[in-house]
Amino acid sequence: MTRNRSQQRNELGVGKNTRGKWLKIIVASLFLIGLCAAIRFYRPAERAAAEPMAPGRGRPADATTLSVRPSTSERSDAGAAEQTRSSMPAVVARVNFRRITRQDLARECLVHYGEDVLESLVNKQLIVQECRRQGINVSRDEVAGEIERMAKQFGIPVDQWLRMLEQERGITAEQYANDIIWPTLALRKLAGSRLTVEREELLKEFETLYGEAVRARLISVSNEEKAKLLRDKAAANPDDFGNLAKDFSEDTHSASVKGVIQPIRRHGTFPEIEQAVFAMADGEISPVIYAGGQYVILKREGMIPARPVNFKQVSPQLEEVIRDRKM
């Protein structure tokens, strides 16, 4: 249950990190950028025609464009490919007397990353084409507004947010706007009513993030009979639960800290565990619970009270989290 153990630690102790999520999206987008560059180096002429058309090449300037800066949106794809090629020498490295050319580099990029990144590129093109079909536009102002909203969400100015992305992730402002923000906004528009967030969903998300939580210890094993024996020992001597977890639990991470896990919150992955611990008294040992492919025993340590957060103030952020999850 290696995957489930990790999942259980994260999801039983729910600690959603919106900033971490967006940084993951940013890293994934770097693959897309890398493949575009590699393909242009290796087969520039064939790929140029497959790129989204820029304004002035058969569609109006306010149509679905991946470029948001006036100087960029006026540049043709062929010109962009030529600029990319000219910025990198034909020979990118020398190892003793062996030359490594940009074609060699492109070939290796395609071998190691091509399949995964090509899927991202295809998805991006599907978004572009579907937006054209439905007449959906994403304007420069909308992209700029979303960038500003993201920066504000983390409490920093836009220029500092963009500078951080470039310094820590190697993503320029143009790449961030074109390859991350634009597809996100386009998907939201394409999804339309499917991204509607109900009040009940907001309340659940609020309760998960800010509601009361239970501190607990855990023993997790793959054998039911072993779980029953451990449960009997724990019930007979609750104070020894931590040592039992350290010696017998198969969840190595929690076992190393005598069974301590992240606080268990509501509306996570394992409702059977939530129902049990929220109904238990402090110091009580749970029955054996089958969850996530393992047999689990828990000891409730105490209750963490709900955080004093105003629901109306955080509702917009919660709605954004839920909407992004649905995409």
Fraction of residues in helix: 55-70%
The first-to-last residue Cα distance is 28 Å
The main pleated sheet reads as: 3 strands, antiparallel
Overall structural class, as computed from helix and strand content, comes to mainly alpha
Number of domains: 2
Shape: extended
The average pLDDT value, as a whole number, equals 79
β-sheet strand percentage:
5-15%
Rg, alpha carbons: 26 Å
- How many helices in DSSP terms? 15
In short:
With 327 residues, the chain is mainly alpha-helical.
Outline the structure in words:
The chain has two domains: 18-191, no CATH class; 212-304, Chitinase A, domain 3 (Roll), CATH 3.10.50.40. The longest helix has 33 residues, at 102-134. It has 327 residues and is mostly helical. A three-stranded antiparallel β-sheet has the order 3-5-4. Strand 1 and strand 2 form a beta hairpin. It is built from 15 helices and five strands. The protein is extended and about 70 Å long. It is 60% helix and 10% strand. Helix 10 crosses helix 15.
